[in-house]
Design goal:
The chain is mostly helical and 131 residues long. The protein has four helices and no strands. Helix content is 79%, strand content 0%. The longest helix has 29 residues. The radius of gyration is 17 Å and the shape is elongated. The mean pLDDT is 95.
Length: 131
């Protein structure tokens, strides 16, 4: 059985980021007395979307990394996807601003996530389909 040590190196900081994003939403919900939704509060809405965007991206890329690593993909490529994913997930929350859709950190975050996904998809194609 493959140990998946490369993916684990990236899963740990991603789990920490997830908890920070969750805490920011929960803390603001408690302070505002809002249980569900954002009650029209733009700051809470941004925090919810930062957390939601994380949940939309990270599980799929981690799953693809696990599959690639277990199929014996070259370690450097799994590391590249992991590093890009962590970079993207660190940058994105600072750039997701309602008043500026083109904030540089949002673009960096999304671009890093797309590159991480494409990179690991190529790894899977090479390992499973023999390209």
């Amino acid at each position: 059985m493959t140990s998946l040590t490369i993916t684990a190196v990236y899963a740990l900081p991603l789990a920490a980021i997830y908890l920070v994003l969750w805490f920011r939403v929960t803390q603001m919900r408690a302070a505002l007395g809002i249980s569900i939704g954002d009650a029209g509060n733009p700051t809470l809405h941004e925090r919810i979307r930062c957390h939601g965007n994380f949940v939309e991206w990270v599980p799929m890329v981690l799953i693809l990394m696990i599959i690639a690593e277990s199929l014996g993909a070259d370690a450097i490529y799994v590391h590249i996807s992991g590093a890009l994913l962590v970079l993207g997930r660190l940058a994105h929350p600072f750039g997701l601003k309602a008043e500026k859709a083109t904030h540089v950190l949002r673009i960096v975050g999304n671009s890093a996530n797309i590159l991480a996904t494409l990179n690991v998809m190529v790894c899977l194609a090479v390992r499973s389909l023999g390209f």
